[in-house]
Amino acid sequence: MMQEKKFVYEFGAHTDGNAKMRELLGGKGANLAEMANIGLPVPPGFTITTEVCAAFAAGGGKLPDAVNRQKNEALKRVEEQVGRRFGDGKEPLLFSVRSGARESMPGMMDTILNLGLNDVSVQGLANVTRNPRFAYDSYRRFIQMYGDVVMEVHAKDEHSVDPFEEILVAAKKSAGVQFDNQLSAEQLQGIIVGYKELIRAATGRNFPQDVGEQLLGAIGAVFRSWNNERAILYRQKYGIPGEWGTAVNVQSMVFGNMGSDSATGVAFTRDPASGENIFYGEYLIDAQGEDVVAGIRTPNPIAALEKDMPDVYGELVAVRQKLENHFRDMQDFEFTVQQNKLYMLQTRNGKRTGFAAVRIALEMERDGLIDKKTAIARIPADSISSLLVPIFNGEDKKRVKLIARGLPAGPGAASGKVCFSAKKAEEVHGRGEKALLCRAETSPEDIRGMLVSEGILTSRGGVSSHAALVARQMGKVCIVGAAALEIDYASHSMRVGGLTIGEGEELSIDGTAGEVFLGSVATVPSEVNQVLEGTLAAGKSSIYTMYAKLMSWCDECRKLKVYLNADSPKQALAGLRYGGEGIGLTRTEHMFFEGNRIDFMREMILAESAEERELAVAKLLPFQREDFIGIFKALKGLPATIRLLDPPLHEFVPHDEDTQRALAKKLSIPFERVRARVGALREFNPMLGHRGCRLGISYPEVSRMQARAIFEAVVQCKKQGVATHPEIMIPLVGFVKELRHQVTIVHEVAAAVKEESGVDFDYLVGTMIELPRACLRAGEIAEIAQFCSFGSNDLTQTTLGMSRDDMGSFLGHYNGLEIFSQNPFATIDREGVGELMAMAVERAQRTRKEIVLGICGEHGGDPVSVKFCHSIGLTYVSCSPNRVPVAKLAAAQAALEQEAAKSK
Amino acid sequence: MMQEKKFVYEFGAHTDGNAKMRELLGGKGANLAEMANIGLPVPPGFTITTEVCAAFAAGGGKLPDAVNRQKNEALKRVEEQVGRRFGDGKEPLLFSVRSGARESMPGMMDTILNLGLNDVSVQGLANVTRNPRFAYDSYRRFIQMYGDVVMEVHAKDEHSVDPFEEILVAAKKSAGVQFDNQLSAEQLQGIIVGYKELIRAATGRNFPQDVGEQLLGAIGAVFRSWNNERAILYRQKYGIPGEWGTAVNVQSMVFGNMGSDSATGVAFTRDPASGENIFYGEYLIDAQGEDVVAGIRTPNPIAALEKDMPDVYGELVAVRQKLENHFRDMQDFEFTVQQNKLYMLQTRNGKRTGFAAVRIALEMERDGLIDKKTAIARIPADSISSLLVPIFNGEDKKRVKLIARGLPAGPGAASGKVCFSAKKAEEVHGRGEKALLCRAETSPEDIRGMLVSEGILTSRGGVSSHAALVARQMGKVCIVGAAALEIDYASHSMRVGGLTIGEGEELSIDGTAGEVFLGSVATVPSEVNQVLEGTLAAGKSSIYTMYAKLMSWCDECRKLKVYLNADSPKQALAGLRYGGEGIGLTRTEHMFFEGNRIDFMREMILAESAEERELAVAKLLPFQREDFIGIFKALKGLPATIRLLDPPLHEFVPHDEDTQRALAKKLSIPFERVRARVGALREFNPMLGHRGCRLGISYPEVSRMQARAIFEAVVQCKKQGVATHPEIMIPLVGFVKELRHQVTIVHEVAAAVKEESGVDFDYLVGTMIELPRACLRAGEIAEIAQFCSFGSNDLTQTTLGMSRDDMGSFLGHYNGLEIFSQNPFATIDREGVGELMAMAVERAQRTRKEIVLGICGEHGGDPVSVKFCHSIGLTYVSCSPNRVPVAKLAAAQAALEQEAAKSK
User: Fold this and answer.
1) How many beta-carbon pairs under 8 angstroms link A with B?
2) Taking Cα atoms as reference points, which of B462, B405, B415, B469 lies closest to residue B437?
3) B436: which strand partners?
């Protein structure tokens, strides 16, 4: 007989899984198994695998029979271990039902607690705990959660109050109490009756008394929540494929809300905001876990537990050590103390700010917990940017008023207009202004508003509150629990220390120090930049020390060179300070807009013959030559890849009549000629029109002038003893004959300049690969091109047939439907564009083994794309100057990943 | 010792080559060898291979040493055979030097005759022929030709007279004679002195007396002429690669101008204009071959030779028979009679009109000269169109005045404005009007003007004149030698039978009958169409009989199905009459423009919510349903491929303020809303914007309505007993999720319509492949798509990154530089787009072996592209109705070519 596939994995006294099985069990399930394996106190339970998630959706929301059977068997064994029965009237076993995906997606999916309570078992619970108030409170919480999550009884809209809350508040009012835990068992029973009526009225069905039905309903709700709007949005931001699915963890309940000898908490083995190596966390006495995360009650810092429960605290300190030593990474764990007994409910690698990621990795390496390669691999490449962002100017900080302090939950400096709702933040952002989201607490509904805000500030909640958590994940500047703020949503204002601050007023927050300022504070460059620019001594900045150490490690590992996209000496210098190794893209046309050069450019465009055009072009020559001399001097012999004129000419001409008339007068030509020419330049699809090398072919005198400017600059530099390494790049080639035409011009001009000047020099000529046809013909192109650089922006536009400028009108729908797994203009579309690139690389190398291949589209600064570029064997990536450190780190990671894969 | 590569092939008493060596020897060289092999009288000579053409250009215009050596050896052997020596002062051997490419390019490249004459050898020629006048005339002609072709002494510009002609005309005037052959030997010697002075003055060099130098110069000029502007233009039109190159034929001269016992002529083994099986041709007594072709003297019809030279005529009739029996194709040959002895100078497969191509192939098959497959293969697929073009209305012809008759050189009917110069024709055409080029004779300089004219009419020249020849090749309506016309270029008018006709007046020519009419004549459908439409009995039209026979042969052979692009029942019926086998593309949006539907469409576009949109869309539903019912009824159960809405919405809205205001009023909405919405629809690159399935995804109600209209039409047809075969096609898919989204809608609607109507029906859902990404992801797409159709227009635009609408601004330069081997929007760019298509086919078939694959871009009606589609294994091509016969013929040829290749 064939063995049935395993869909349900147990943990507890008997454990099937381990930490390596994340894909199948999700992160939470795998780590529950692992904790059980290493002897930590885990309440027993079981995990339904991620594979079931897709099967559940495909089956129209029904669990496959085999899964149901295995679930029932596992449940029986939990009953045996705990010694209680599910739905029992005397000693009922209760469960929590939680999601758990391969990657943690905190707060995005649904959870049900206290499952297994009904009108009968609640009495059993009351008896066995001798605490009827606790039992009915649990039942009340369960019905509320189940009604919301499974039976979908919600507030009508965002302006209405949650209907369960409404009943609760009314009950408290009629009982004359302030807090939930002041309600008596009888009062709670009254609430339960109200809840049940609410559910029947809203859904036409009764709240289910059958615990089996409860469990199936909860499992289904968790699986369904994988595809709720929040979860989809989150996946898009973090590039998590919808195909992965979530697992469901069914675990026997323990209670932190059984009195003052019970507690629940969340802790980190290090500070997730600053990365500091301290025990960090918070807890609430007599509470359930959701209370901590939801941020409704402000929890106590973990250190206070030493006094409240000294034994438990001691146990926790040991657990902290055991976890870090076992997992060798910063852990974020949840615990519950039920009547003085500690239970571990979850552990996972803790989310951390970019800053903390760098610090923790470097310090763990220093302390021998991990090796250098692991340290590099563990830092999300984007994180390093957080060492480079501007910080508040210390002097200017003194000028403004410090109005509050809170917990620093996301380092950095942010200023913006106060917004008291996510919607307002979106509105302010939509107007192109900076928003600072300011809430008592945040919840998953606020996520869009958080995304667009410069910073997040809350008056309640601790470092494990939703706001802190999301800030860590998104790299937002954030302060939580700034208790001095009294926010009044109704009046769209807040009071703090006698001040009233209205919506739209300017605030500043220092997420590193946890300080809130009234008004806007000036910024200065990051410490790293201050050191690089020579205004701060390297020894004075520990941040610079971290930066420099990490960069030197990256330089040891990486194979990819990192070049810059830079159009001016200033930009080039900025990138060179970060260790850029040359210029991968200089857009010569940007130079045409400066000063009165634009007039010569326009004169060229308006010329009626090649001779006239040549005269106009000649006037541009000295300017271009000076530009190139500047760039060569900045580069000191590093490669300078210079792209010839690319954009359509209509970008250079004025489109309004007044400027056209002025231009006509200036050039002493009839206005009608200007207007007619501008009209003739209009194109249906300029992206696919008369641009790139098509310009150089129609107007060879332009290519000739640009080549001459480059070579004359080379000669002048050579005479001044400045080394040069020019690489001339022909844009938008699709046919090899286009390239041959332009390359011939370049070689002719080079020969002429050598002849005239008597100076010999080296140079390369190559092309951009930015059309699908160029990818296909790369073999042929490489016969002529000495180097090729992927223009991945245009290549993406043509391969997808999608104009980046026009996609706004349908992007919203596309995101909602998860049509792109990632935005193809941010991260290379590996399955489409990526295949063409790989094909081009292979064909080009077959023709010319040692050809230099690079990328100069915006993808060159995106870590995922950088790794892809490494994998297909490019020589370099070129990116904007401030992305150089990110690209270097990603390049190092790519090399290490490849090395690891090879050694397998 | 290694054998040196052979660059020079001899023909004559010893012959190295044969007819199969076209690629190496060119058509002329290969056939000279073949004629020598079968015993026809060929003056001895040698051929320098096409391989040398590229070597010559690469070597900077110098013959490689090995070639030069082989040439000298071959020359020596010709001297031995003929018994004369090259450059000899007593019995000089003279040569002709002619081009000869793989495909004949008549009149496009240069030729030199009488080479080997100099001041000394001319005296030898005079002695040995005892005809000093002849000798000096030959020398005069040689210097003129050499001066023009090799030494590049030309008229200053198109308005100036040729400087050699100027000297000649002046000499005739001073001698008081009218014709060249009335000049005495002494007068000719005077002209020769004038010519030499002209050359020295114009070039600073002497006309070369060294015959070796003469020969090298001529060979070089012929090789160079491969790349003159005319030749490049010609190659572009006929898709001949520049890489092929030309061979050079050096042949000992014979003279048709040695008196009244000498002659020169051109003949065809059948009539190249009508295809009739008669001996056809013309000759001139006492003339050189160039005189016939140049059309300067109007030659005599070949039949007259029976009286002039009965023996030679008998020999020629035998040669005609021998050539047709040997080559089994209509031959076009040149002969010279030197003092009553016949020499064959050239034979080749005769160019013929499309009409003649069909007739000759069918008649040769009937007579057992060739088999059916050869007959099919031999008809250029486009030719069949000439059986389908409208003809003059017989009644209307009687209304207008018949003003002249000429030789019918290109069948068909053409009307247009008289243009007396090619330039004028281009100008008239440029204005969007029809031009009729009317010249005394045409020359290669006129080729651009001929290309754009509706028809060509000459007053001089015979059927082998330049005009007749080009008309045959281009498929132009043409009459030559309409001697009654007296054209006066100076006054831009012509006189004929007492009338004066000015430039710009309307004329009509019937190229089948050879009749010229004053004014415009109405046309009626071709005989084929008259039969198909039932207005003419099949038995009454021999043309229809040919058409039907050929089509039935094609249907036997071809593997590709031929579908129609048709948006209305009327278009569908037109294509079905030609044997279309279904619809490959119905553009549903075209239906939205009819009547007041556009208002509903605009209402839909202006809707502010999905609900409003749904209301507007519902109004379109009944119209769409009726459209589809009409199409299904026309198709009677053949496949109907219906594409959902594709173009960007801005194509449906008014862009001028008045219409916008009217629309606002009609829809009772504010004008500002209309204006704002129209503004919002504007896109930077609409080709790459919000269109195709992106619309259906943003506005699913539109897809839903279209699917419903289709299925409701299916149900209604079914109820009326009309079979249907709907195939719904989703446009512009790049991501498989896009397709899945739209397919889901279609299936949902189908299920709903089945449910509502209680009628079951079949349908398919598929997609267009029109983006590079779709080609790459075809394997995945085929998991969902039941069929795929290549949208080769958009696929070409995206693969090449080139907008068809915008390429006008650089196309001229691109053509001049031969950057495209063929216009990629007319013929599939095999190396780029073609590779993507082949890749898509392979991937789609790997997923779904039996998937139906087609093409519905405009390439579907282009013969070369049809063959490509066959080669990659498509199921069908879809083209506009009137291209169906062409596509069928091309499909049959493709199948036969594949069969032939397999049997090899």
Assistant:
1) 166
2) B415
3) B418, B455
A685 vs A803: CA distance, rounded Å: 10
Q: Is A775 a catalytic residue?
A: no
Measured distance CA(B592)–CA(A35) in Å, rounded: 66
For residue A753, is it left (φ>0), alpha (ψ between -120 and 50) or beta?
alpha
Whether the predicted pLDDT of A503 surpasses 80: yes
Chain A residues in contact with B697 (beta carbon < 8 A): 810, 813-814, 817, 819
Task: Give Rg (Cα) of chain A.
Answer: 32
Catalytic status, residue A741: no
CA distance A385 to A377: 16
- Give every CB contact of residue A720 below 8 A, 6+ residues apart in sequence: none
* pLDDT tens digit sequence for A700-719: 999 999 999 999 999 999 99
Distance to chain B for A826, nearest Cα, Å: 17
Residue A300 CB-half CA count within 13 A: 15
Q: Is residue B546 classed as helix, strand or coil in its secondary structure?
A: helix
Q: Is A684 within 8 Å of B680 when comparing Cβ atoms?
A: no
Residue range A400-450, pLDDT digits in tens: 999 999 989 998 999 999 999 999 999 999 899 999 999 998 887 888 899
Would you state the structure tokens that stand for residue B820, as one six-digit string? Answer: 């495209």
Chain B interface includes A777 (CB < 8 A): yes
B684 closest CB neighbour out of A686, A697, A810: A686
Of these residues, A429, A466, A725, A870, which one is catalytic?
Answer: A466
Q: Which long-range contacts (CB under 8 A, 24 or more apart) does A29-36 make?
A: A29/A100, A29/A247, A29/A249, A31/A346, A31/A347, A31/A348, A32/A249, A32/A251, A32/A346, A33/A9, A34/A326, A34/A347, A35/A344, A35/A347, A36/A11, A36/A12
Q: Is A689 on the interface with B (CB under 8 A)?
A: yes
List CB contacts (< 8 A) between B835 and chain A: 776
Which of A694, A735, A799 comes nearest B772 by C-beta? Answer: A799
Partner residue opposite A810 with nearest CB, options B690, B814, B835: B690
- A493 vs A420, A425, A499, CA distance in Å? 8, 14, 10
ipTM score assigned to the predicted complex: 0.83
* Rounded CA Rg of chain B: 32
Tell me whether strands B561-565 and B583-587 are parallel, antiparallel or unpaired: parallel
| A684·B802 Cβ contact <8 A | no
CB A339 within 8 A of CB A263: no
For residues A837 and A790, the answer to whether their CB atoms sit within 8 Å is yes
Does the beta-carbon distance from B684 to A805 stay under 8 Å? yes
Provide the pLDDT for residue A808. Answer: 85
Tell me the residue ranges of DSSP E strands in A323-390.
Answer: 331-338, 341-349
A737 and B685 within 8 Å at the Cβ level: the answer is no
DSSP state of B511: T
Chain B: closest CA distance from residue A803 (Å): 5
Residue A368: CB atoms within 10 A of its CB come to 7
B504, pLDDT greater than 70:
yes
- From B683, B697, B801, residue closest to A813, measured CB to CB: B697
d(CA B860, CA B880): 8
| Residues written for chain B | 904
* B383 phi and psi angles, rounded to 5 deg: -55, -35
Residue B1 banded pLDDT, cuts 50, 70, 90: very low
Interface membership of A680 toward B (CB under 8 Å):
yes
Task: Report the 3 state secondary structure along B254-322.
Answer: CCCCCCCCCEEEEEECCCCCCCCCCCEEEEEECCCHHHHHHCCCCCEEHHHHHHHCHHHHHHHHHHHHH
Terminal-to-terminal C-alpha distance of chain B: 35
Name the minimum distance, in Å, from the CA of B243 to any CA of chain A: 13
**B522 C-beta neighbours (distance < 10 Å), count:** 16
